[in-house]
């Protein structure tokens, strides 16, 4: 029985050693989404625009949701930033339970580095988010006539979330092989997470006893900090960002270790 390495150095080495293959798989998966459609990759831009319009109508017009007057930017871009950040979490986790199940040939018939599949899933979610963020920044510039000076700090703000999501994807992609009901459970969690983070409402609107609970959701910190650097021109909370980065890196490694320890049983149940 092959004993797959689980050290953090091996996890980083996986990313570096197979970076060419990872890049090709990300490009292939992105192209496969729109293969055969008339409009092709235009849907990658059109879909978030349509969904944004729907959310804005429901929450901005019907429910007349607002952020405090002391904050800069409009309700439109404030909401969109939250949706884009949540989209990284939602897309990656929604795919996680079927990442290994959907590639049985990689498990049974060929020698393939299965540990890169969760990385590919997270990077695909990041590509989608990059398109959404480009749209948000463009709208923000059109409405305000300026770009936030702290905008270049956005990658540093999103990195901890990406690491945390990678750890969850490693875990769920492994568990999904043995527990097929996981896909339905993850769908419920993803939906609930959208409303248990300050996406459609400001964190200041949440009563104090419940605000602490919302901060247990990793999306809350990521959404708040992304808005700070993209819209408000504020530097991120460096202490919180450091703690979140350490926690995210730990999550990524623990998920990777679990995946490597359990992958030997994949072929037996597929």
Can you describe what's shown?
The protein has 270 residues and is mostly helical. The chain has one domain. 70% of the residues lie in helices and 0% in strands. It is globular.
In short:
One of its GO terms (biological process) is lipopolysaccharide transport. Residues 39-262 form the ABC transmembrane type-2 domain. The protein is an all-alpha fold.
Distance between the termini: 17 Å
Average pLDDT for all residues: 87
By oligomeric state, this entry counts as: single chain
The coarse silhouette is: globular
Structural class: mainly alpha
Residues in β-strands, percent: under 5%
- Summed up, the helix count is 12
Order of helices and strands: HHHHHHHHHHHH
Main β-sheet: number of strands, strand sense, barrel status? none
Catalogue the unreliable spans.
69-73
Number of strands: 0
CA-atom Rg in angstroms: 19 Å
Counting structural domains, the number is 1
Percent range of helical residues: over 70%
Question: What does the secondary structure layout of this molecule look like, with pairings?
Answer:
Elements: H1 8-17, H2 19-34, H3 42-62, H4 75-95, H5 104-108, H6 117-144, H7 154-178, H8 182-195, H9 208-215, H10 218-230, H11 238-262, H12 266-269
Helix pairs in contact: 2-6, 3-4, 3-6, 4-6, 4-7, 4-8, 4-10, 6-7, 7-10, 7-11
Keywords: Cell membrane, Membrane, Polysaccharide transport, Sugar transport, Transmembrane, Transmembrane helix, Transport
Subcellular location: Cell inner membrane; Cell membrane
Protein name: Transport permease protein
């Amino acid at each position: 029985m092959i004993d797959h390495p689980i050290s953090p150095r091996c996890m980083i080495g996986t990313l570096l050693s197979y970076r060419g293959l990872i890049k090709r798989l990300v490009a292939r998966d992105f192209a496969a989404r729109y293969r055969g459609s008339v409009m092709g990759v235009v849907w990658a831009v059109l879909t978030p625009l349509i969904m944004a319009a729907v959310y804005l109508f429901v929450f901005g017009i019907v429910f007349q949701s607002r952020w405090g007057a002391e904050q800069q930017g409009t309700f439109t871009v404030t909401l969109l930033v939250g949706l884009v950040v949540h989209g990284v979490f939602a897309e990656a986790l929604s795919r996680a339970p079927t990442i290994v199940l959907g590639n049985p040939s990689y498990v049974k018939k060929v020698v393939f580095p299965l540990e890169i599949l969760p990385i590919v899933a997270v990077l695909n979610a990041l590509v989608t988010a990059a398109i959404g963020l480009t749209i948000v920044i463009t709208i923000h510039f059109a409405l305000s006539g300026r770009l936030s000076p702290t905008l270049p700090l956005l990658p540093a703000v999103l990195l901890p979330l990406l690491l945390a999501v990678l750890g969850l994807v490693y875990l769920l992609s492994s568990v999904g092989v043995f527990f097929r009901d996981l896909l339905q459970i993850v769908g419920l969690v993803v939906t609930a997470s959208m409303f248990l983070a300050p996406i459609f409402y400001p964190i200041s609107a949440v009563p104090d006893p419940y605000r602490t609970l919302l901060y247990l959701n990793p999306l809350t910190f990521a959404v708040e900090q992304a808005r700070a650097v993209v819209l408000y021109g504020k530097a991120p909370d460096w202490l919180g960002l450091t703690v979140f980065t350490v926690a995210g890196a730990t999550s990524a490694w623990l998920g990777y270790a679990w995946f490597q320890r359990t992958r030997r049983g994949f072929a037996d149940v597929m």
